[in-house]
Write a structure and sequence with these properties.
single chain; alpha+beta; OB fold (Dihydrolipoamide Acetyltransferase, E2P); nine-stranded mixed beta sheet; five-stranded mixed barrel; 21 strands; 35% helix; elongated
Length: 504
Amino acid sequence: MENNKPAEKHNNALDEIIAQRYSEVNELRAAGVNPYPNHVEKTHTCAETKELADNTEVATAGRMVQLRKMGKAAFAHIRDFSGKVQLYIAKDNLGEEPYAFFKKHLAVGDFVAVQGHMFVTQTGEKTIKVHKLDLISKAIRPMPEKFHGLQDTEVRFRKRHLDLIANEEVKDIFVKRAKIISSIRKTLDEKGYLEVETPILTPDSGGAVARPFQTYHNALKMPLRLRIALELYHKRLIVGGFDRIYEIGHMFRNEGIDTTHNPEFTMMELYQAYGDVNTMADLFEEILGNAAKAIGVEKVMFHGQEINLVPPFKRLYIPEAWKEKFGRDIHEVLDGRQFKREPLAALAKEQGISFSADDPDSKLFDELFETKLLTGYNCPVIALDYPTAVSPFSKTKPGDPELVERFEAFVCGSELGNAYTELNDPADQLQRLKDQAVAKAKAKGEDAENADILDGDYIEALESGMPPTGGMGIGIDRTIMLLTGQDSIREIIFFPTLKALEEK
């Protein structure tokens, strides 16, 4: 019980402040003052006022973030989206009654509109000498930490509005997010890609192996799922004659949450007819390089490492790296579209990889690749030539059916993008989807013989003919994490998914 006393005192104090301010609002209304007027006169943003010459008349507005009263005068700062500007509020300039109103009713957190003219204080700060001041929105709740910073991460993410008010650098992250996404669109638009929109609610969420969110459409009396990928719809558009398409949108995966995963996240997928994995690798470099330029960075600190974002990036060919690291040919652990369990397990054991007999072969490969081959590569690295066994939608390399034309892009071990020379042989694609469905059923302990493939309609579309195509997906959230130097996905999503608070 002792631990609850400070919290109770805090809540009681907060309740008193809220009640007092609601009472003040009622008092203002009773006096004929509207504390929430409809219209505001604003000729300049706060930042623009500081570029004006002395004695220029201005009208601006913003939230009062600092206030220092000194009897017959006061200094304050107001802030809008553009920045802050200082106000000089004096009884002689404002008038006796308006100044008395200001002293009695205005507080940090309130929104005000001011009119006045510019001058420079003795300390050299551009300031508005106010001759008219109006309350335009009364804040009922006190501002967090008196604008010295909101540090509690749980509060920051649950009450993002307070985070944005208290921590101006947070706003800058989201401004950069918008610029990065805008840059990606600009790069693709200028290269002739068409932005498209495909369904979010689908009969089947195919195109990736992930657990979907499920819902039900009452009128159609059918189950639907939130999409986990864009791939299969996009390839239908390529079949239909579109040569270059892209989509930036939200995906939904009903899986775990950690520093790099949120159930709702943003992806970009694109497809280029008559392209291949090398076309996509070149384009990835251009997209990431241009996005870095858009926010004015060439290097950034990410996971404690300095990352150079200027292309070209390191290209790591997996068979060559495998040979160099393990002293053996990667084909020793491959058997067509499958892995050879015995030599793969032996290599994993030799390399100190912990695993159980139930772990799939793909997990052993991923552990070897991520913990051994990627080690030492912190700056962007494009890894190419993956085993067919872990790439069901990619074309095999000419003359080597055990490897595919695929790349994944990594920074400090975090995956940013994935690309293929897309599989366009319908018979081969059907068999791979069947293999994938069987593997998924076995993992769940279900009947593998009756496993359904992910999307039979897609095979039908592919039978109409799809040209040689390069396709790529880029994780927008992880890219923004990199470019802004953030280690948690929650820092770059306005409202991340959080566990519900337990009721006390």
